[in-house]
Amino acid sequence: MSLDDELAAELRRDHTRANLPDADRAMLDFVVKLTEAPHTHTREDVEKLRGAGFDDVGVSQITMIAAFFNYINRVADALGVGKPDE
């Protein structure tokens, strides 16, 4: 198993326990919260990203990319994309 394979396996199991740089962990914490409980996001969540080294452009990009993936996955799920005919 390569290092990339090991990291991918760690991330699938639990991103909070994966061997990641602080900035990557902050980004993943942010997008998981955005995905699972967007209504609970606060200014503090954005400040954590800034504290990890992300500027306004980085925060915006992280937010838009995560939001887009959440949106497009929900559209695909609603339309049954990739699901076998029942």
UniProtKB/TrEMBL annotation:
<protein>
    <recommendedName>
        <fullName>Peroxidase</fullName>
    </recommendedName>
</protein>
<dbReference type="InterPro" id="IPR029032">
    <property type="entry name" value="AhpD-like"/>
</dbReference>
